[in-house]
Amino acid sequence: MICSTNVSCLLMMAAMNKESARKQIMFVKNNDYYFIVYNILVILYCLKCSTMSRLFKDWRKLQFLIPIVSDSRYIALLSSQASKMLPKDKQLLSRLYSSGVTTKSQISQVLYLLESNGIISIYKDSKHNTYDVQLIKTSIAEDFFSRDVFFNEMSNISRFIELNKQARTMKYETFLGKLFTDNGIILWHI
User: Fold this and answer.
1) What does the alpha-carbon distance between residue 38 and residue 30 come to, in Å, rounded to a whole number?
2) For 103-118, how does the pLDDT look when each residue is reduced to its tens digit (9 = 90+)?
3) For residue 45, which of 177, 170, 157, 180 has the smallest C-alpha distance?
4) How many whole angstroms from its chain centre is CA 22?
5) Residue 171: which residues within 8 A CB-CB, separation 6 or more?
6) Terminal CA-to-CA distance of the chain, rounded, Å?
7) Does pTM top 0.85 for this prediction?
8) Is the distance from CB of 175 to CB of 68 less than 8 angstroms?
9) Which residues, 6+ apart, have CB-to-CB distance to 182 below 8 Å?
10) Which residues of 120-152 are buried (b: 16+ CB within 10 A; e: fewer)?
């Protein structure tokens, strides 16, 4: 198999043997670039961000969505009411915030890599001072998003969308407020 980049290798592997490719890219979860790649692609796909009219507004939300999509504990936690949250639940949300903040540079690197390989497009929104993301579906094999391979991630993002219908278009600050501040988590901004 001849690949021009790691991303194209991943996509080719996924098309050839979906389950095998998934197992190979799951070895070091949160810091693994392949883990970040396939979660970004699944998020953009499930949110239908493949046209100019359906851009994913403000890429920074991805740093928190990736762990949420990959771990159903967060979905269960966010489904509960803030007033019923136990201290251990707030601690879990606080860890989500901290880990999300620390992965920002990795996610921006992955987005740049995906854009340079023609898998996504990134657009600057001068009005809102954000960078918005579009998935270029034609650059990915048809069966890459097979429900049996990414079933858990797709299920989690669908459940998250039910909880936050405006997640795709929501401003970053509003997103943080709904996810963390409304649940009693104190944010530190970098």
Assistant:
1) 12
2) 999 999 999 999 999 9
3) 157
4) 16
5) 57, 58, 128
6) 42
7) no
8) no
9) 82
10) bebeeeeeeebbbbbbebeebeeebbbeebbee
